[in-house]
Amino acid sequence: MKILFSVSYCLLFLFIATNLSIAQTMKPDAARLYNEGNKFLKEGKYQQAIGVYDKALKIQEDFRTFYQRGVALKNTGKLKEAKDSFESSIKAKPDFALAYNALGGIYFAMGKYQKAADNFQKVVDMTKNKIVKEKVQKNIAFAYAKLGDNAVSQGNPKKAITYLKKAVENSNYDAAYLSLAKIYSETGKYDSSLKAAENALKYRTTIGEGGPYYYMGVAYKKKGNIAEAKKMFDIAKKDPRYKRLAKYELTALR
Predict the structure, then answer these.
(1) Parent domain of 85
(2) Residue 133 burial by CB count (10 A; 0-12/13-18/19+): exposed, middle or buried?
(3) What is the CATH classification number for the domain harbouring 21?
(4) What is the pLDDT of residue 25?
(5) What is the count of structural domains for the chain?
(6) Which residue among 30, 143, 158, 232 has the highest number of C-beta atoms inside a 10 angstrom radius?
């Protein structure tokens, strides 16, 4: 089962740092160009923004300008150049959390999910803002869920379980719980499968009900609780994605 991902992984990715004070730390000419670039960025004129940011950086290599330039580059699809700009922002100010989050988003878009998770983790370690921390932990969960999905595709369920458990340790991601339920079921760990399916249902926001109920049914069947298994399969068959599987199980239990 492939995990479906929304664009939620970039919840913080496009923060524009215009609220950062520049009066005392940026040279006047660089600050003027920085603000001009931000105006273009807000208007969606990304190439113009990049050109102005480049001029500002020739005057002063400021972490905020590198960051905004990275945002503009990302919006033009130039991921490698955006990555380099965010890395320059971090080099100029190693404790600038927004740049780590943006870099994590770039790595995610590139399919480099471990690097994405590592950069998102740096944000969590740095920030004291509870709301920001929770949002970035969701980003970490998405990255580890992707790694788990890849491990499944490569025929490595043990590694997949490790990744998926890291995903749900960071955030109660329903699709990751559902993938855990499936893997545990396929590897004969029915108590673990049942618990994961229950959590998938408990925290359900992106998946249908069919999957959790189907794997709960399989777990109950394997544990010898046929009556409960039938109840679960009866609910699962209402979901078009699990209708055929659930009906097959119900037929087999007659």
Answers:
(1) 1-133
(2) middle
(3) 1.25.40.10
(4) 82
(5) 1
(6) 143
